């Protein structure tokens, strides 16, 4: 059903776990997504519990974690624990970007991360992943609405 | 055309060099120091082989320091984990994910004792990459107390504290940053204290490298660095420190980027402009004090994830630009830089790269080897003019603190990072097409149990102390900070009494307030 005010193309929460200090990557990805028409909420540093509350409050479709410090595995694990607590782990997709070695990318996907974008990733691939996550969530919502 | 927008001639000739070159060059070791700060450069004084190291606990990192020193490194380049840089304790819930990551975890004097265990601090120079003033104040205090306990006099200590307020308020981010003016004041407190009491210590190493990595081009990197140093000298002069003395103690940290000739020209231009600025604008009375001394690091953002082994070539070329440009000290990145901090194996290759430059390549034999090259002189003149223009523009905007407070600098770096990104996306990438021949090397893995060991250490630090005395010392730190007095002496008292890093950080944050970095 078409909405009279147009369709929300998708909302993405971009956040940094722990205390990783680099912001260049998060800023570039936020800009890529805004240029592609998505709404981006930049949260900055947040602990997993704060992050999930913000994601639910803002009704985002996707959470994007940006980190270069090497904390990606522990923080993705903690984020999924929080999402499960709120029953949102099947609802909101998580994407991870930053300095992630290939072997860790495999582990992140096993944890439930929908996509991992290491150094050198192309913008088209990031946009496509967000589009797919938004489409999946919208379809699930439509099914739930019957 | 390069990143800076300087058109590159197909062949440079005399027509590309303005008249009066001899005056702009001088001789190595002579004003305006275009050709280097020593008459014979590396023949009489090698650059310091200073490889970054830091991870896990102090004991873990001490092992890496020794590994590097045993293999020929000549200085220590100690990096701290993210919570320690921002002066948070390792058991702060916000800190836990990053304890021992990207650097070593330190929480008190005992960690600094362990960090330098078995290392003669009177003989080896130590760069403390305490990038942010809120961490630089307690780190230096802890280092001094640890050195004293090891029997080394403060006056014998040689080294550097990075101590750059832009690292706290713009270039890198973290929770609860100090406001720019307060962070700048803390940096100047460290500088003032070192100038008065640590004759062989560089109290500020302006982190142009990090400005570059955040998005600056070569011109902005140098212009912002020199404008920053100018502001520190002016503030110290306002406090009554002799300007010549303050100028002599400034040091710089630059990127050695991939555009070899432009980088060589950049280092030469930076020396020339700093000399002019010091002598003409800052009231320097001794040209030798106006020699720009710098550490260089190969550029992390140029290191590829897809072809890690090709990064060995990048490290060598970038290291060459630093040495041909007259660096006093150098770090070459590990080939795994795009993914993680270096393993022992990649750190050893980086160290060997420096030794190839020093012992095998012959680049160290003659001072300023590219001096007189039409191309390099042309680029040096062009960069000099653009850096001077940048300096004037920052002054018109009220200086480095003002352009940070207004958010102009964050926006400018973001805009440039975006433009660089668009340019990179538009370029064909042989790295991505080379394919599976370039398999991912083994990556650094943090040792198990770092958080637990560091928590135990913190408990140990808190257990042995007189709590009431510590509280009173911390109160003095806070009241000195609030009153605008130099905070270093009170901080020395606090950490000697057993105050932790996070406690000093909290005292400073409470006294000085915090600031939301204008991003997002």
Brief write-up:
The complex is a heterodimer of chains A (146) and B (520). With 146 residues, chain A is of the alpha/beta class.
Number of domains of chain A: 1
Low-confidence runs of chain B: none
* Major sheet details of chain A: 5 strands, parallel
Helix content of chain B: 40-55%
Distance between the amino and carboxyl termini of chain A: 12 Å
Distance linking N and C termini of chain B: 32 Å
Order of helices and strands of chain A: EHEHEHEHEH
Residue share in helix of chain A: 40-55%
How many strands, what sense, and barrel or not for the largest sheet of chain B?
Answer: 5 strands, parallel
CATH class of chain A: Alpha Beta
Report low-confidence residues of chain A grouped into runs of 5 or more: none
Radius of gyration of chain B: 22 Å
Rg calc of chain A = 14 Å
Work out the helix count of chain A: 5
Average residue-wise pLDDT of chain B: 96
Mean pLDDT of chain A: 95
What does this protein look like?
The complex is a heterodimer of chains A (146) and B (520). Chain A is 47% helix and 19% strand. Chain A is an alpha/beta fold. Chain A has a single domain (11-145), classed as Cobalamin-binding domain (Rossmann fold). Chain A has a five-stranded parallel beta sheet with strand order 2-1-3-4-5, sandwiched between helices. In chain A, α2 packs across α3 (72-85). Chain B is 51% helix and 7% strand. Chain B contains 21 helices and ten strands. Chain B has a five-stranded parallel beta sheet with strand order 1-10-9-8-7. A five-stranded parallel beta sheet of chain B has the order 2-3-4-5-6. The model of chain B has no long low-confidence stretch (mean pLDDT 96). At the A-B interface, α1, β2, α3 and α4 of A face α3 and α16 of B.
Task: Note the topology.
The complex is a heterodimer of chains A (146) and B (520).
Chain A: E1 11-16, H1 24-35, E2 39-45, H2 48-57, E3 62-67, H3 72-85, E4 93-98, H4 102-111, E5 115-117, H5 123-145
Parallel strand pairs in A: 1-2, 1-3, 3-4, 4-5
Chain B: H1 21-25, E1 48-49, E2 52-53, H2 58-70, E3 75-79, H3 82-85, H4 109-115, E4 125-129, H5 133-149, E5 159-161, H6 165-171, H7 180-197, E6 201-202, E7 204-206, H8 208-214, H9 218-238, H10 243-248, E8 250-256, H11 260-281, E9 294-298, H12 310-324, E10 329-331, H13 344-360, H14 374-396, H15 400-405, H16 408-426, H17 430-434, H18 450-463, H19 467-483, H20 488-496, H21 501-512
Parallel strand pairs in B: 1-10, 2-3, 3-4, 4-5, 5-6, 7-8, 8-9, 9-10
